[in-house]
Amino acid sequence: MNFLSQDTIVALATAQGPGAIAVIRLSGPEAISITNKVFRGKNLEQQASHTLHFGTIRDCERLIDEVLVSLFVAPHSYTKENVVEISCHGSEYIVAEIIKILLREGARLAEAGEFTKRAFLNGQMDLAQAEAVADLISSNSRISHEVAMKQMRGGFSAEIKNLRAQLVHFASMIELELDFAEEDVEFADRTALRNLIHEIQKLLRHLLQSFELGNVLKNGVPTVIVGKPNAGKSTLLNVLLNEEKAIVSDIPGTTRDFIEDEVSIEGIRFRFIDTAGLRETEDKVEALGVERTRQKVEEAALVLYLFDVNTTSPEELKAEVEDLKTAGKPVLLVANKLDAAADKLIDFGSFENLIGISASRHQNIPELKKAILSQVKTAGLQDRSQTIVTNLRHVASLEKTYAALDDVLNGIALGISSELVASDIRRSLHALGEITGEITTDDLLENIFSKFCIGK
Ligand SMILES: Nc1nc2c(ncn2[C@@H]2O[C@H](COP(=O)(O)OP(=O)(O)OP(=O)(O)O)[C@@H](O)[C@H]2O)c(=O)[nH]1
Ligand SMILES: [Mg+2]
Questions:
Q1: Cα–ligand 2 centroid distance for 207 (angstroms)
Q2: How far out from the chain centre does Cα 211 lie?
Q3: Which one of the ligands is nearest to 338 CA?
Q4: What is the DSSP letter of 249?
Q5: Nearest CA to ligand 1 atom 11
């Protein structure tokens, strides 16, 4: 596949705002010649690829900045086009001036994700790899970084290609099955075909199941801390965040609105949400807070139910657990203020998923973190070679592939014509091809790359 772009695009590749240096990037047939027109130093059009050149950028005779220019001559660049990167001083004014004169010399402003889109269209990377570039940029924990890096380097694509190869193999078996049909070996052959499809579906199921974890890795785990007023929820939030984020006081009903922040535990991001204590109240503002707490429980992936062991009876806790169950979320019961009554925990021996702590004394917090982690399905993380799907678009395509294979199986069971079976196989191949971009539409590309930042 080769996509010949006429335009030369330009954009700031580093973050907006002042910095030590800023990098302005150009890509396209005229990238080097346009830069050369405003650059004083060596003649850039006569330099080798992968070389660096010091010089100045001038607007006619006015000196704009001293810069360092990196040259990448097509096809040896990120986009496979001519690429120039101008490192200038990181002033917003300088950046704006340089881009302005590059535009005047014939470049045009890049659209969001256009560099990476060109890299994809020119065959530098497939679509799943291009998407991983965006994931890599936004990765913010050890594991989300690891998964994005693996996908960008083609790990996931290799898995999809492997599935495709198996399906193509399957298609050829169908032809074989046709040949053998007349020789009356149909039954055995079909069993083999069915087994192959089952094998492929098993792989697909693995990939689909990995999304539960993949989604957690990408978006974090919203974890809501609920409980009666004064249970110590805000104290616990502060302990987990390692920061005095929420106001703590001995007045029940201190927290009115929810307070949240993110923290990483063993490489997985959790968003902890402290809430207004759950109770019947006459106070209008507090009542609103309680209502919002219920909403937060709806949105959460995990609920920490915190209670004061000194003032809560097992019967009360049981009633609360019943109530929480209706939300259908995993609940971890956290008995707080153990420092004041260490032996009280025995009363709660019959509860599952219960852990005792003292938030204010920082007791048992590592154990609590471990318990929180255990609520997240991290099974896939043990085996570092397993592919984890993190992208909803990929899930949709995998599901389509799976459904098409179901149709293949049904077709075989019903003894429909081989042509129809073959058409269902093609459908499954098509759906897989959407992931790596063998099959694309303009809308799809627009949708994917418009979410990138400008300059990437
Ligand atoms: N002894 C003891 N006191 C604690 C512990 N954790 C919190 N407290 C105290 O309990 C009181 C209430 O703590 P908060 O963290 O404000 O409780 P909360 O659940 O956020 O309360 P509301 O915001 O009113 O719903 C404060 O006086 C804390 O110092 C603990 O582990 N042991
Ligand atoms: Mg509070």
A1: 40
A2: 10
A3: 1
A4: -
A5: 250
Amino acid at 423: S
CA nearest neighbour of 127 among 445, 437, 451: 437
pLDDT digits (tens, 9 = 90+) for 266-304: 888 899 999 888 776 677 776 777 777 788 888 888 999
DSSP characters over 67-80: EEEEEE-TTSSSSS
Report yes or no: 262 and 269 within 8 Å, Cβ to Cβ: yes
**222-270 pLDDT tens trace:** 999 999 999 999 999 999 999 998 889 888 888 878 889 999 888 888 9
Helices 233-241 and 365-374: angle between axes, nearest 10 degrees: 90
Q: Kindly state the tokens that stand for 426.
A: 């093609």
Q: Cβ of 312: how many Cβ atoms within 10 Å?
A: 20
Please give the structure tokens belonging to residue 391.
Answer: 């992208």
Mutate to test the pocket of ligand 1, among 224, 226, 230 (most ligand atoms within 8 A of CB): 230
Residues with a CB atom less than 6 Å from ligand 1: 227, 229-235, 248-250, 252-255, 277, 336-337, 339-340, 358-361
Best of 228, 235, 258 for a ligand 1 pocket test (most atoms within 8 Å of beta carbon): 235
Atom of ligand 1 nearest to the CA of 247: 16
Taking the complete model, does pTM exceed 0.85, yes or no?
no
